């Protein structure tokens, strides 16, 4: 792997949540000691349940939230030290909901040219040219320039959002569930477009999703997030062929099959997602884990290297009493 | 950047109707807006050109021709709307009175609009301590009865046009603040605000060009409501003798002066009453119409 273009070092984000009028604020660890690195041209899929901290991580990377501790490095430079405009030229987002990510008061031309205007690039004429080129790149005709987002379909809107993200030629694009609000038929068009653009411009994606099929299709590496922690990280093939962490296995099992006679898959996760304000002791996953033993309740697992990444589980830790080298779930 | 040809060259030339063309079409199709706009513009015209339009001096008294009936009740064209108890031409006073009403409505709504919008948007955007302070101020303001405070201030400082405008302007910002705060809170969570921030846009740019355009139609409605509110309050204060002082012509004052003769000469109260009603109705229709025309959900 080449030198990482984006690197996270022990990034954590803690919110203080006030409970009731006189309650003492309690810490909520939305992102907890996350370390990741992305090489140029890589697509890292970040998967996990709702509320596990995926979107908070995306906001930190975009500079919209300050991490409580830890560092985010872009090309080896900490983003805390860079000014916002410099960061914006390198990292751009594509958001989940194209119905909310485009300002309904602005024409498409205004929306797509906003980055150019904020950064003071070119004059009105060259900006207009650049907007037309970028729209063409994402497969939109020039006649949409004067229309408003409300006159477009979901897929078209997402193309506009992609055009806005790419017009400044960023190195890294944070895709926060870019297809989950779209029809299935449109989803594949957008995914293929993202893939083509990546190949053409050598973009690096952080692809946040809860749709494992989408991640398998697009990602080169996958990180699984649970309660603010990366519990397993591996190359896409390794992870899908041989998931190590019980949570990864549960996620893979939860994918619906097209055959209705098979029924709704059983994830064997049992109890609901825990309250992140008072997370379970030891391994955060133990109340839902079918393989949990007493050790899991008391001791948090340490990250253990695995093929193409790491996994946090006592079952895979050679120093642990629970170690089962043959365990592939 | 290499460009892939994905559209036929012909398609590029078609850019469709421009936003301005669409807007014009929607304005001309909205009857309420056109009616409100017409009445307000006519009254504005009348107010500005009052010296040219008024047939008589609104202050000139003529004790020999008091309480002349308007032309539709058997009067003469010398005084189309009759004269009041001091023999002053009623039409001329009505025309000059439009100046007072519109001036108070516009200036008071503008002052309170600036105060309330700044407070509300700041509270909604920044949240936290700013929000707590603004919410407290709104609650304090809501606990004060407007008419009572206005009466007290006018009683101390004396009734004049400037005092009435100042008092109303500093008192009527509560609805602006409440509505702008709620709208900003709503819009602030949209992803296009986050997108603009991620692009590197400054806070002022995010507020002025991403948030404001999306809450301005709520603002328009409040501006018109508060304008009408201020005009009615001025009329009420003048009626109570604490607003604009006689002999300045004001519609509220005309109603007040006419009330003694109301049972015998009801037109003394009806004429300024109807004009006041028409102005307030027209302003509200205009506000409703502007909101309808500019709302993105009505674009198609």
Automatic annotation (TrEMBL), chain A:
Subcellular location, record wording: Cell inner membrane
GO molecular function, one term: ATP hydrolysis activity
GO biological process, any: transmembrane transport
Main location as per UniProt: membrane
Annotated GO CC locations: plasma membrane
SUPFAM superfamilies: P-loop containing nucleoside triphosphate hydrolases
Assigned protein family: Belongs to the ABC transporter superfamily.
Keyword Nucleotide-binding belongs to the record: yes
Keywords, comma-separated and alphabetical: ATP-binding, Nucleotide-binding, Transport
Pfam families assigned: ABC_tran, oligo_HPY
Topology versus the membrane: Peripheral membrane protein
Record's keyword annotation contains ATP-binding: yes
Domain ABC transporter: 6-252
Residue ranges crossing the lipid bilayer per the database entry: none
Name recorded for this polypeptide: ABC transporter ATP-binding protein
InterPro entries xrefs: AAA+_ATPase, ABC_transp_ATP-bind, ABC_transporter-like_ATP-bd, ABC_transporter-like_CS, Oligopep_ABC_C, P-loop_NTPase
């Amino acid at each position: 792997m080449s030198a990482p273009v984006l690197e996270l070092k022990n990034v954590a984000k803690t919110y203080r949540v006030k409970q009731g009028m006189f309650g003492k604020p309690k810490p909520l660890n939305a992102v907890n000691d996350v370390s990741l690195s992305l090489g140029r041209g890589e697509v890292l899929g970040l998967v996990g349940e709702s509320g596990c901290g995926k979107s908070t991580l995306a906001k930190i990377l975009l500079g919209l939230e300050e991490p409580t501790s830890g560092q985010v490095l872009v090309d080896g430079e900490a983003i805390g030290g860079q000014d916002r405009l410099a960061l914006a030229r390198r990292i751009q987002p594509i958001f989940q909901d194209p119905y909310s990510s485009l300002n309904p008061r602005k024409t498409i031309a205004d929306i797509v040219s906003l980055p150019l205007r904020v950064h003071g690039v070119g004059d009105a004429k060259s900006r207009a040219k650049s907007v037309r080129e970028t729209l063409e790149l994402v497969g939109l005709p020039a006649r949409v320039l004067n229309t408003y987002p409300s006159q477009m379909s979901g897929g078209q809107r997402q193309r506009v959002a992609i055009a806005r993200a790419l017009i400044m030629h960023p190195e890294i694009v944070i895709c926060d569930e870019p297809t989950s609000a779209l029809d299935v038929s449109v989803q594949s068009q957008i995914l293929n477009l993202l893939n083509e653009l990546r190949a053409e411009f050598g973009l690096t994606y952080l692809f946040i999703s809860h749709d494992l099929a989408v991640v398998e299709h697009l990602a080169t590496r996958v990180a699984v997030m649970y309660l603010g922690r990366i519990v397993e990280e591996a190359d896409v093939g390794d992870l899908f062929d041989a998931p190590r962490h019980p949570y990864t296995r549960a996620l893979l099992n939860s994918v619906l099959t097209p055959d209705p006679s098979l029924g709704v898959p059983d994830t064997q996760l049992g109890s609901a997602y825990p309250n992140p304000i008072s997370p379970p002791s030891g391994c955060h996953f133990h109340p839902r884990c079918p393989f949990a033993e007493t050790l899991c309740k008391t001791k948090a697992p340490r990250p253990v290297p695995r093929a193409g990444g790491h996994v946090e589980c006592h079952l895979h830790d050679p120093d642990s009493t629970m170690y089962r080298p043959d365990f592939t779930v | 950047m290499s460009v892939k040809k994905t559209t036929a060259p012909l398609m590029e030339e078609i850019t469709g109707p421009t936003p301005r063309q669409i807007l014009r079409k929607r304005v001309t199709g909205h009857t309420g807006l056109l009616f409100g706009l017409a009445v307000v513009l006519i009254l504005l015209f009348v107010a500005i050109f009052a010296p040219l339009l008024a047939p008589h001096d609104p202050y000139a008294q003529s004790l020999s021709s008091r309480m002349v009936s308007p032309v539709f009740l058997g009067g003469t064209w010398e005084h189309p709307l009759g004269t009041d108890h001091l023999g002053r031409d009623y039409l001329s006073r009505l025309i000059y009175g439009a100046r007072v009403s519109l001036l108070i409505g516009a200036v008071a709504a503008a002052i309170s609009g600036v105060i309330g919008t700044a407070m509300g948007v700041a509270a909604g955007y920044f949240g936290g301590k700013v929000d707590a302070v603004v919410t407290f101020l709104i609650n304090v303001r809501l606990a004060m009865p407007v008419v009572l405070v206005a009466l007290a201030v006018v009683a101390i400082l004396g009734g004049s046009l400037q005092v009435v405008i100042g008092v109303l302007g500093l008192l009527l910002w509560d609805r602006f603040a409440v509505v702008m705060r709620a709208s900003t809170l709503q819009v602030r969570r949209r992803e296009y605000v986050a997108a603009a921030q991620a692009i590197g846009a400054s806070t002022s740019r995010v507020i002025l060009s991403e948030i404001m355009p999306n809450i301005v139609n709520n603002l328009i409605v409040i501006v018109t409501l508060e304008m009408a509110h201020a005009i009615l309050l001025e009329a009420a204060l003048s009626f109570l003798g604490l607003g604009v002082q006689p002999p300045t012509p004001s519609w509220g004052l005309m109603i007040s002066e006419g009330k003694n003769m109301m049972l015998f000469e009801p037109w003394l109260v009806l004429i300024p009453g109807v004009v006041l009603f028409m102005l307030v109705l027209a302003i509200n229709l205009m506000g409703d119409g502007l909101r309808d025309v500019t709302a993105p959900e009505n674009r198609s």
